[in-house]
Amino acid sequence: MITPVLHINQFKESVHLNDVYINSFSNHIQLNKNLINKPHSHNFYLCVLFTEGSGTHEIDFNSYRINPGKVFFLKPGQTHFWKFETPPEGFIFFHSKEFYELKFLEHKLHAFPFYYSYQNPPVLELPPEKLQELSMKFQEVYNEYLQNNLLRELKLVNSLNNIYIELTRVYTIDINVEKLNSSNYSNTLETLENLINTHVYKEKLPKFYADKLNITTKHLNRIVKKTINKTTGQLISERIILEAKRLIVHSHESLGAIAHTLEFSDYSYFSKFFKSKTGMTPLDFRKKYF
């Protein structure tokens, strides 16, 4: 069984509007509990702010604590699920890439650091005063979503953009903003990550991706090093391991079949590669996870 990919139109909502969904978090999980009670991914961008509750949020096999003030961001394709210890409250919104980028022609979602790269942390903790301020902004955009006023869609896009800007300012307090603003490098990194997502089963060498980008392998390494302080090879290996973990946990295939799916020459080579990167064999990982 492959992880289900959820689409915006599957989620119940109060007033229909294409490509965007906004709700209080408690209402969201009540309405959609049958969709989100197991690991899943999305085909859209998601942001959630917690004002109450505790538990854990697992995103691509990394576990994060849930508590008031936590904000989480997900890009399309990331696998996640929630596990709550006390009742959660807050706000959630998600939207397609087109919903945002068709309105802001000069500004792209990857310009926000939390959507810039899968390498950047998908979580932010707001200080108490900022939590109060952002909660009001989330409440305002939710109120607007529930109404059917004139220019509703335009106001929603502007309000979401305003929230993203405020979250970016908190997110980048301790980050070198100069690095984030290197638009050519950030565009290349985003294209590279998309190429790896598309071709990682077949293509595992940096040269393939450098050729696709019409640059040298050396220059591609320079870009990756400058933006996320890794090599292209590391980025590819991490993506292979992530895909392997997803298949090991979310599919019922044998480990040998998973090695074949990932186009390793045999299971032995796949197992050695997996252990060299994670410290455990695929079988150990499957046992540990469950």
Look at the helices and sheets and give the structural class.
alpha+beta
Query: Overall pLDDT, averaged?
Result: 88
Uncertain segments of ≥5 residues (pLDDT<50)? Answer: none
User: What is the approximate shape?
Assistant: globular
CATH-assigned homologous superfamily of the largest domain = Regulatory protein AraC
The proportion of residues in beta strands is 15-25%
Biggest beta-sheet profile: 6 strands, antiparallel
Number of DSSP E strands = 8
Series of secondary-structure elements, N-terminal to C-terminal? EEHHEEEEEHHEHHHHHHHHHH
How many helices? The count is 14
What fold name stands as the CATH topology of the largest domain? Jelly Rolls
Instruction: Kindly give the count of domains.
Output: 2
> Approximately how much helix is present in the residues?
40-55%
Ends distance: 15 Å
CATH architectural grouping of the largest domain = Sandwich
Organism: Aestuariibaculum marinum
Keywords: DNA-binding, Transcription, Transcription regulation
GO molecular function, one term: sequence-specific DNA binding
Pfam families: AraC_binding, HTH_18
Outline of the structure:
50% of the residues lie in helices and 18% in strands. The chain has 290 residues and is an alpha+beta fold.
What does this structure look like?
This is Helix-turn-helix domain-containing protein. Residues 190-288 form the HTH araC/xylS-type domain. GO terms for molecular function: DNA-binding transcription factor activity; sequence-specific DNA binding. Keywords: DNA-binding, Transcription, Transcription regulation. By secondary structure, the protein is an alpha+beta fold. The protein has 2 domains: 5-176, Sandwich (Jelly Rolls), CATH 2.60.120; 182-289, Arc Repressor Mutant, subunit A, CATH 1.10.10.60. 50% of the residues lie in helices and 18% in strands. The protein contains 14 helices and 8 strands. The strands form 2 sheets. Strands 2, 4, 5, 6, 7 and 8 form a 6-stranded antiparallel β-sheet that branches. A hairpin with a 2-residue loop joins strand 4 (45-59) and strand 5 (62-66). The model has no long low-confidence stretch (mean pLDDT 88).
